[in-house]
Amino acid sequence: MSDDSLPSPPGARTGARTAAVIPAAGRGVRLGPGAPKALRALNGTPMLIHAVRAMAASRAVSLVIVVAPPDGTAEVKTLLDAHALPERTDFLVVPGGETRQESVRLGLDALPPGIDIVLVHDAARPLVPVDTVDSVIEAVRDGAPAVVPALPLADTVKQVEQGGAAGEPEPVVATPDRSLLRAVQTPQGFDRETLLRAHEVVTGNVTDDASMVEQLGLRVVVVPGHEEAFKVTRPLDLVLAEAVLARRRLNDGF
Ligand code: CTP
Ligand code: MG
Questions:
Q1: What is the CATH number of domain 13-161+170-252?
Q2: Average pLDDT, the chain
């Protein structure tokens, strides 16, 4: 359904139904010992719940599929039941796999018919603003088979020689033009068939879903990401995430 009078671009998919797959099955080794990363609390609420709310905040998202740690499926179901989530959104929980890629595929296996657009969103990016989610969906609706939110880099990047000894100085081989580089975030958005095909065809280790679509030779586009969509990876990221939540609370007048 189109809600405005502007003509839709060719290939546009108005009225498409959207689901979000949230891989949350990682241990969080870089965060240090403790519960699986997605179950760690940020200001008292598990990171995963923040991530689910971030997806459900988009009115376009009608289903959220959480890919849980294989031994934590029951715990994740209990958590979802215990936290207030929008009524318009359905939830499914499936057990994850050994790698992120496998976890995403297990989430995709649970997609019901009738979903046309799929978002894949890291549980480890709990604070992505809804405007970023909506702009990814919008770009897929406008006809892009794969869309990634991303930001320009703050740091200059060096490419180093392969196979150096750990801890030894590493010879630099190149300095890529920073203005052409982007740091990629999630949610990444896809035309459903494109993403399913990428997961069927592409093997080998990848760290994001869009790169699988690139390997199919299809067009992937970048839309502006957001600094609050950063990934909680190391202990300092927990401090930053809680500071962002505290700032939001102040701004919301709580
Ligand atoms: N993930 C997953 N299944 C895996 C590995 C990762 O679902 N087997 C998910 C994580 O839960 C996270 C997202 O993929 O939400 C991004 O991965 P990353 O930030 O690397 O999380 P972890 O793999 O848990 O962390 P680490 O690499 O430090 O162990
Ligand atoms: Mg990992």
A1: 3.90.550.10
A2: 94
